Amino acid sequence: MALEPQQHLDEHDPSDTCFTFDYQPLDDVDAGQRWSTWLSVEPLCRGPEPRPDWVVTSQAAIDTELGVLKTGKEADAFLLERSVPAGHRAGAAPRYEPGDGAGDASGPGQSVVMVAKRYRGEDHRSFHRSSAYTEGRRERSSRDARAMAKRTTHGRAVAAGKWAAAEWQSLVRCHELGLAVPYPVQIDGTEILMQWITVDGEDGPETAPRLAGTRPGPALLASYFDQVREFLADLVGCGLVHGDLSAYNILAAGERLVVIDLPQTVDLVGNPAGLDFLLRDCTNVCSWFGSRGLEVDEQRLFGDLMAHAF
Questions:
Q1: Domains within the chain, CATH numbers bracketed
Q2: pTM for this prediction
Q3: Which of 104, 130, 233 is nearest to 178 (CA)?
Q4: If you placed Cys at 205, which of 198, 236, 256, 280 could pair as Cys (CB 3.0 to 4.6 Å)?
Q5: Number of other CB atoms surrounding residue 129 within 10 Å
Q6: C-alpha distance across the termini of the chain, in Å
Q7: How many other CB atoms are there within 10 angstroms of residue 279's CB atom?
Q8: Which alpha helices (H) appear in 55-195, and where do they start and end?
Q9: CB of 278 within 8 A of CB of 241?
Q10: Measured between alpha carbons, how far is residue 9 from residues 15, 51, 155, 277 in Å?
Q11: Is residue 99 within 8 Å of residue 256, measured between CB atoms?
């Protein structure tokens, strides 16, 4: 029997429990750096266990900003390195394999490069369809709901945190289901740290390209479509819909696809537009695969997925 998805997502709301404790950083951290926030957030705000061996949990680790990775409609993504300086090594260095998100472990301490996705406030976002995605979701605090409706300063801050929390919950849920999404490392307010999906580059690992930017051959194209169909079927089987799936938020890590950007995941039944969102996801992906020469039909895909849902 499929779990009640929205009930599961609401059990532990990170917007209610995830925060950073007050602490004073030491003076020996350079500009663009901070001490690791791993132990500064609540346990429920850390990634699900068992955790990959590349996750750096040492209290001695330092986070270093590496630059902007991507800007988006509601959030910006940055690359962030979490490393343990020489002399503070705790445990064996993680093993790096292309595409697993681990950083260069050949140095004197543990090191991993992650994606830091940071949600902007309502005043600095261009994502205007949020009300359609949030229908059917419950607000724990009536005060927060009123503040968001009135778009007060507090309401705008709550809204940004709600979108971060929604993506965190979706990433955790999808990871628990074994779906191909980045491993969620931690959430701290409006910042989510997650696995960096990479491919081999000339100078080391680099960000995996979006599916939209690839030109796969016939066999790989068919394999890619099978992976997308399986992802959608597994998600629908748990009563969930991605809600904004396209070739622009699917990464091609070699022969493996990884789905990203999940803040707008909706309940297939609880959201009045759930079926419409599912059909749109089918149309978006089938349009791309069709443009690459693969014979696919969005109505047939939609029908197949509905068979998994009910």
A1: 5-199 (3.30.200.20), 208-309 (1.10.510.10)
A2: 0.79
A3: 233
A4: 198
A5: 11
A6: 11
A7: 18
A8: 130-134, 142-150, 153-176
A9: yes
A10: 12, 20, 21, 19
A11: yes
